[in-house]
Amino acid sequence: MTKINNNSEILFLYEAKLTNPNGDPDDENRPRMDPKTKRNLVSDVRLKRYFRDYIISKLGEDSVWVTKIEGKNVDATERLKRIGSPKDVLAKCIDARLFGATIPEKGEQKGKSTSFTGPVQFTWGYSLHKVDMVDSRSITSLFSGRDTGYGNIGKDYRVYYSLIAFHGAVSAKRAEITGASEEDLKTLDNSLWDSLVTETVTRSKLGQRPLLYLRVEYSSPEKMKGDLRRFVKVKEKSESVRDLTDLEVNLDALVNLVSSNDVIKVVARCSDDFKGFCEQVKSACDEGKKNCIVG
Amino acid sequence: MREMKALLFHVKGAMAHFRKVFSNSTSLSYYFPPRTTLMGMIAGAMGKERDSYYEELNQYEISVNPLTGLRKIMFGETYLDTDEVSVTSLRKLKQGVPTGREFVVPAGEEFLGYEVVVYPFNEVMMKSLRAPVYPISLGPANMLGWIDQVQEIQCEEFNSISGKINSVSTLKPEIEKDIRIAIEEMVPRAFDSGRHSGPLTTYFLEIRGKPVTVKGSAKGVKCGERNYLFL
């Protein structure tokens, strides 16, 4: 396992089309919105859930600490015994090493737990433009629950189009505590993108597509620029945004950041829509002789 | 009046959550980081461990003021129930705990920000804020932020004031045209070694960071043209 030596920051852009990127359980499962700015919001927990579900599908549920075990009744004590001590949780579960974990401890003191703050933290994601909700929102279901001969009418809220941006930070100092390694970061680099493809196949989550993933590694364990969404400028070309083509995305400031001396390593992945950006990153890397993985 | 140096910095981010100490199942947020949160932020930048710094950092006076307009929004969240040791609760087989969480977001701008003044000046602190050991956050770890404009400024101490101030204050501001005052009650100021907060204080703030007029006894510093009252 290779130690994480430097801080990194992550920018992840994905789109959500005619879907519900993150429903609010307190609000009839409507997509989370800031009503004043009409920004669509997505919690960091939602993003981490995609990653966790993807890891479970690849490596099994023992490699993830916070997860559901569907269709199985689990004996709690036996299960905890199998996972072991908080140290074992860190050793076995990649999500605990990356995102941190709260691990309850059995003992006389009720509610006692061990907490680790993970080196990888994501902020809440938000849309980089105003988002419209789909006007029609009633759906019918044939499972009425009553023998009336009719279907039931329920609510289903979706957004027309949302270009969502997440900012994340990787702390080298915190990685020392949870034991997160460069290999774990590599898994994150690869899986976050793939999870957005494979884990968004339920009815309410279909229509999401990753567009751009960028992780910049800084030259020291004390360097961070702060929210990378500052380096992305988005203009709405039409009154209502229904597609990526209705937006003008300017990433020049991001290319400048990649070219700067503060950045020593870059991991970038682009959809066809952002191919030009990945090419610019690649040439900036070649020019600065930086270690880059651009795909 | 004593002339001394102070440390000034800006902290910025997309969202913030400064949990009210008295909120129970629903997490409400103050409009601004209380002195205890700012101490934690500085301690994190200096690489100090949790609960290890109260005595040392309690010696500093801190002032805070919004740089941008502030708003609060509320969202529903589901917490894991960790009251009992059980994988069923931890792995969400059992129902979670539905709750609401309040966030502070910028009004009219993309990012929110606060101006912070720490007095007296400390060189190590300044260096740490320029290169923080732990990432900066505006409240919990996922409310990531960043620091800029870290600088040393010349100030004069005062114990009473009659005039404009550029900070959150315990003195009631005069009612003027076009100011929007929020009152934050029961805000912690310090922790003792057992992480107990002492008396809780009431503060007034202009939620767009505009200067307000106050009169009365309060400790603070005048730095150039700006007056800062301590939290």
Automatic annotation (TrEMBL), chain A:
Region of interest called Disordered, as start-end residue ranges on this chain: 18-37
Coiled-coil regions listed: none
Pfam families listed in its UniProt record: Cas_Cas7
Comp. bias intervals (Basic and acidic residues): 28-37
Annotated GO biological process: maintenance of CRISPR repeat elements
Protein name as annotated: Type I-B CRISPR-associated protein Cas7/Csh2
Organism field: Metallosphaera hakonensis JCM 8857 = DSM 7519
Automatic annotation (TrEMBL), chain B:
Gene Ontology biological-process annotations: defense response to virus; maintenance of CRISPR repeat elements
Domain of life: Archaea
Keyword Secreted: no
Keywords: Antiviral defense
InterPro entries per UniProt: CRISPR-assoc_prot_Cas5, CRISPR-assoc_prot_Cas5_N
Name of this chain's protein: CRISPR-associated protein Cas5
Source organism per UniProt: Metallosphaera hakonensis JCM 8857 = DSM 7519
